[in-house]
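Handout, page 2. Input:
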Amino acid sequence: MASVRKRSKRSRNGTGEATKRRTITTGERPYPRPRRRFGQHFLEPAWTAKLVRAVNPSPDETFLEIGPGRGALTAALAPHVRRIVAVEVDRDLTSTLARQIPANVHLVNADFLAVDLDDLLRSEPRPLRVVGNLPYNISSPILFRLLGAAGDGTRFRDAT
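Output:
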């Protein structure tokens, strides 16, 4: 059963007024609530199995996951693939996720729109598959970035 508790730490929103952050606790893992400034929305657990079936991963494949959030898709996909490179902008989510990810997941705390993809993916085998529950407010820039980084068409196999 999920519970909500208020944290005493105060943060500033875009208007400069003080706001209280709230944390959702599911079992033993506390997660920050979705942040509007990042366009966050998290997958419901029921959807992860459906997505993994739709992606139909192979054990020899490497995935680039954009915005792993709480790690629902990451955890469901990791047992079926060689490796996942997951890029998450939210440092609070990254620190929580880093404590529970499988060994075949390389978690990067960075803004996908600003990260050097050539450097990040240099040692990864091609073609990569791309997955993600994209933040709604930057989905178009992310897709344009992927198209621009595709180069000669050998970097990415597909995107879901």
